[in-house]
Amino acid sequence: MIDEQIVIEVKELDVGEALAAMSSGTGVNSGMVGLFMEKSIERQEKQYLLTWKGNKVPRGAIVGGHEIAWTQYGMVRDSDGKVIGYYERLVEWGGKDQKDQTMLIAMFLNGGN
Question: Is the pTM for the entire model greater than 0.90?
Fold first, then answer.
């Protein structure tokens, strides 16, 4: 369950919007995660922009029909620990109150591996 103080917004993106989001972020993650996101966008997999306030882990957020339990090292995991997608962090501890968070998330089309 999402903490009450966290407000989450999820927006499914088209390819152009996902590419724009990648180029507008702070680039907190890099290397292989960034490459994976670019390839995922090229393959037109489902991309989501997730924004919220609070903890940097969007635990409990429902994205693409899957509940997020943990995010770390560019991987999105469900409550069973299964990798269900990848993310690129675009904003970390932003805003005046330093609680704004934003991620670009690519969900696996097959539901994970």
Answer: no
